[in-house]
Amino acid sequence: MRPARKPCANCVPSCCASAGPDNFVARTDAEHDRALANGEFVLPGAARCTELDCRPPFAWAALVDFLQLRGAPQVEGLRGGWYVRTLAMAGRAGWCAVRQVPSRGMIQLYYDAALEPVHEELSQRVGEWLDVAADTASIDAALGADPHLSAAVGACPGLRVPGACDGFELALRTVLGQQVSVRGATTLYARFVERFGTVVETPFNGITRTPPRVDRVAAEPVESIAELGLPHRRAQTIKALATAMAAGDVTLNRTADIRQMRERLLAMPGIGPWTVEYLAMRGLRDADAFPASDLGVLHGLGVKTARQAEAAAQNWRPWRAYAVMHLWRGAAGG
Q1: CA–CA distance, 59 with 297 (Å, rounded to integer)
Q2: Please, is 92 exposed, middle or buried when counting C-beta atoms within 10 Å of its C-beta (0-12, 13-18, 19+)?
Q3: Nearest to 162, CA basis, from 329, 334, 274, 39
Q4: Sheet with 82-89: strands ordered across
């Protein structure tokens, strides 16, 4: 899906004038905070805006909850009804902000003027991050017919599989999450952001750094990585993964060869089937990826082994990744 770039139709009058998206009015910090609290989005200085079409239904609140729980507070978070984050691409660093407009079936996207030269790639990445192209009506119809999922789908129609704005960010956060709680992994990830992220100026309090740069992590000694609070073996895994991704041997995006990436990831020390399937779900955009050994999946299916989970989930194909999102949401009490 290639979103049209046009001035946002839902901006307040002082934000986007009819002449185009460049006419933003600077405001004081207090005025800016009041505008955010009122659901407006008025930025000091220049910014750009566009719209991303998305198919209904769209479980926006569930998506935001999932992202916010796993993101470092210096990189991303909810601000005044908008989900904001930093990112870096093609040697440029900046920020973006998104929110759903259900009445118009689209996502509003605002972004730093510094990212204007890469706006097409930015729109594509954000679209994949939010899974805007998913045909959730068809997915819900297929999964909702299964007795294991009918109640979950009915309670949260339009649930998405979040993608990634940065493949290495996703890979790093996933490895940090091995055998620790979501909260514990987020704490570890925040340390990596402080050490390996780039300082970036944004209009959002506390949003101050980009995700860790893959080249910086790849160049770091294993011992230094371990000092951030990791077992030596996990530090070795992160070093190897960063080296492979910096060299282009491993890529996590929709255009990558899914089978080849699975094989390369599995060949790396410290990366097993659960990690590979999770990265396939979110990074490689494999709608049928299935981390069969996941505890939430086993519990949701009422089985004890990954083999039993594989057998029980056959009816969910080719949408097993979306089924997993429903099981995780149920396990979290969502």
Answers
A1: 20
A2: middle
A3: 329
A4: 47-53, 106-112, 92-101, 82-89, 76-79
- CATH number for 45-134 (one of 3.30.565.10, 3.30.310.20, 3.40.47.10, 3.50.50.60): it is 3.30.310.20
For residues 106 and 52, is the Cβ–Cβ distance under 8 A? yes
Q: What angle do CA 122, 107, 183 make, to 5 degrees?
A: 75
* 293 DSSP assignment: T
Give just the sign of the alpha carbon dihedral 228, 231, 237, 239. Answer: positive
Chunked mean pLDDT (size 10), the chain, 334 residues: 44 33 41 59 69 96 96 94 94 95 93 95 97 98 96 98 97 94 95 98 94 98 98 98 98 96 97 98 98 96 97 98 97 75
Cβ atoms within 10 Å of 51's Cβ, excluding its own: 21
* pTM of the predicted model as reported, rounded to 2 decimal places: 0.89
Distance CA 13, CA 31 (A): 15
- Domain 167-332 classification at class level: mainly alpha
**How far is the C-alpha of 83 from the C-alpha of 232, rounded, in Å?**
35
> Using an 8 Å Cβ cutoff, are 142 and 308 in contact?
no
